[in-house]
Every structure is written in C-alpha cells, then in structure tokens.
Write a structure and sequence with these properties.
The chain is α/β, with parallel strands linked by helices. Helix content is 41%, strand content 11%. The chain contains six helices and six strands; from the N terminus they run H-E-E-H-E-E-E-H-E-H-H-H. The structure holds zinc ion.
Length: 221
C-alpha cells in the first residue's frame, strides 16, 4: 500500500514538474525576447515597453554613411538605457581612415566599437544603431553615445574637415537627445584616460570646441 501511494504520488508529480518547467521556460523566453528580436532585426525600428530611450529619432542625418557592424563581441545588440552624455574619443591610430576603424570594429575578435567614426576628410560613418550600446566608454556605455575621431598625427589634433564634422554631428546628437554642449564629455572625464589626447592636453581647446557646439546647436532652436 505504502509503495503504491508513493508510486501514484510520483506519477502525479511528474506532469506538475513538467508544467512548472514549461512555465519557467516561457517566462525566460518572454524576458529574453527583446534581445533575441533585436539581434534578428538588427536593432532597428522595434520599441519595447521600458525601453523608452530619450531620442527624437534613431535615424542619423543624411551626411552619415550608415555601415552597421555585425552583432558580436563589440556590438552586442543590447539597448541603451538612455542618452545622458555624448563621449568624444580619438582613435589613437594616426593617419587611419574612418573606414579602417569601422572595419576593425567589425572584426570577429574586436571587443570595442563606437556609434560613429569621423574620418580625415570629414566623412562620418555610423557603426552602431543609436538606440544600442557601443563599447567605447567603459561603465558609461549604457547611457552614452560615442564618437571616435581620426587624426593625422601623434598630437591627436583634428584637422579642419574632421573638426567641422565633429561639431556638426555633436550638435545634432545633443539636439536629438535633449542635451546641451555641457553634456558633451571626453573619454578622459569617464576614466582619466588620455583620450581624446589633444583635448586632454589642451583644455582651452576643449572649451572652444564645446562653444562651437553651442553655436551650432542654436540653429536647431
Ligand atoms: Zn577613448
């Protein structure tokens, strides 16, 4: 008798355990769905509850050459929580082009990437969708948009074309995310890293840059 009851008990528990397992899997699937869908969709055009990012649009301006890198170690497909700052970087590779740097980000083994790269001719390449995390600014990747900027030599100083594009893009990003020029920061301000070198070595030039962004921003007001 005792054995019989135990057996019946086991038989009854098994389906219940299965139902619980199925429910657990279903709950997990629901919670992980955004990232799965993001990966399948390339992170484009899908809004999720609780992911109401503070951007007017995820569409970059016409002068931006959109060449999104593949989902991988660098671009994970994970969404930004918000956009609280714009982070300016320099590539640290004198003479390399925007295309060189974008293609490096796209390599399977690369673990870093930025939203935008500005080249020596002033060209702008977008590598990561505006509502996704980049991998450039350490613990601030979650709530910042990153711009890597090419430079001709070791000083890290940007040439005129590159600089003008940086001002134009930064002002547009500020307007698009409701930020001011004072919300534009250097990688240096996040971690103390000497990046972008010229603006760390020359704080006055950094202030001048932010003033130029402020002036450019006025055209959006
Ligand atoms: Zn940097």
């Amino acid at each position: 008798m005792t054995t019989g009851i135990k057996k019946r008990g086991k038989r009854k528990l098994r389906p219940i355990a299965k139902i619980i397992m199925v429910l657990c899997v279903a709950v997990l699937a629901v919670f992980s769905a955004p990232s799965v869908i993001d990966i399948l969709s390339g992170g484009k055009g899908i809004e999720f509850i609780g992911k109401d990012i503070n951007l007017k649009t995820t569409q970059a301006p016409d002068y931006v050459d959109v060449q999104l890198i593949n989902i991988g170690l660098a671009r994970t497909g994970k969404k930004l929580s918000s956009v609280e700052n714009i982070v300016v970087h320099y590539t640290g590779n004198p003479g390399t082009s925007a295309q060189n740097n974008r293609d490096y980000f796209n390599k399977l083994s690369t673990t870093v990437c930025s939203h935008f790269v500005i080249g020596l001719g002033g060209e702008v390449i977008q590598c990561v969708p505006l509502d996704e995390k980049s991998a450039a600014s350490n613990h601030r990747n979650i709530d910042t948009v990153s711009i890597e900027v090419c430079h001709p030599d070791e000083s890290g100083k940007f040439n005129e074309n590159t600089y003008n594009s940086l001002v134009k893009l930064t002002a547009w990003l500020c307007d698009n995310s409701g930020l001011k020029e004072t919300d534009v920061i250097r990688h240096f301000d996040v971690t103390g890293k000497e990046c972008p070198k010229y603006f760390v070595d020359n704080p006055k030039e950094w202030e001048n840059f932010k003033n130029d962004v402020k002036e450019k921003l006025k055209k959006y007001k």
